[in-house]
Design a protein that fits this description.
With 250 residues, the protein is of the alpha/beta class. It is built from eleven helices and nine strands. 51% of the residues lie in helices and 16% in strands. The strands form two sheets. The protein has a six-stranded mixed beta sheet with strand order 1-2-3-4-6-9, sandwiched between helices. Keywords: Lipid metabolism, Lyase.
Length: 250
């Protein structure tokens, strides 16, 4: 199963993504993730959500193969709508969401992490937006929540990555631990939040979102308008296919 939810202890819901080989999600996968996070937040027994992944990395973004197999634009539109739904589910979740990140966190992964309430990461975690190399745009909205404006622009234009240690320096990653300690660290933090009065924490989540200066829903969809424009202009298809061809080279 691509997305699953379990409760390791009272008050804590753990949502896990497991989509081998690299957790690049299909349209259905993005919507499944959105539904899982939303359902966890609606459950009054849930005081906090931990979002994590199995496999080699946290998330590699959208499934480009699915988009390339579609002769039209349905998969592209679905991927954009699915990403928007999943990012919104994390941001709008009724309780705090802790992202536990290991390995690569790329594209849509940055969208999830940028909208999370707290981020913990393993020492091998790297974050980046390869969108410009794929003929697309998106998630600058969320990268801007992790790093200062000018660094975001440099990372975005160059499709470069940034380490968990660097994000810890900027204050957007709460703690950096070994891969072996990641789940336990996220769970310990979740346990501390879950011990609070959930009525107060749920109100706090609404209050903090209400004073947010970044209109995350609108700004992400604005970015996606340019992705559609690049696709209509014929720019994106060649970039995506080049990426897939490079992956298949020995």
């Amino acid at each position: 199963m691509t997305v699953s939810t379990h409760s390791p202890e009272p008050g804590v819901a753990v949502v896990t993504v497991d989509a081998p080989p690299v957790n690049a999600l299909t349209v259905r996968g993005w919507f499944a993730l959105a539904a899982a996070v939303e359902a966890a937040g609606r459950d009054e027994r849930t005081h906090v959500v931990v979002l994590r992944a199995e496999g080699r990395g946290f998330n590699a973004g959208v499934d480009i193969k699915e988009i390339q197999r579609d002769p039209g634009y349905g998969a592209l539109i679905g991927a954009n709508e699915g990403c928007a739904a999943a990012f919104s589910a994390v941001y709008d979740c009724a309780v705090p969401v802790i992202a536990a990140v290991h390995g690569f966190c790329l594209g849509g992964g940055v969208g999830l992490v940028g909208n999370a309430d707290v981020v913990v990461a393993s020492e091998d975690a790297e974050f980046g937006l390869p969108e410009v190399d794929r003929g697309a745009l998106g998630a600058a909205t969320h990268l801007a929540r992790l790093v200062p404006q000018h660094l975001m622009r440099a990372l975005y234009y160059t499709a470069s990555t940034i380490t968990a240690q660097q994000l810890h320096h900027h204050g957007s990653v709460y703690s950096v631990v070994s891969r072996e300690e990641l789940d336990a660290t996220a769970l310990e933090l979740a346990r501390r939040i879950a011990a609070k009065d959930t009525r107060v924490i749920r109100a706090a989540k609404q209050a903090i979102n209400g004073i947010d200066v970044q209109p995350v829903h609108r700004s992400y969809r604005f970015e996606q308008g340019f992705t559609f424009q690049l696709n209509l202009a014929g720019v994106s298809d060649g970039a995506r296919q080049s990426f897939l061809d490079d992956k298949e080279k020995p």
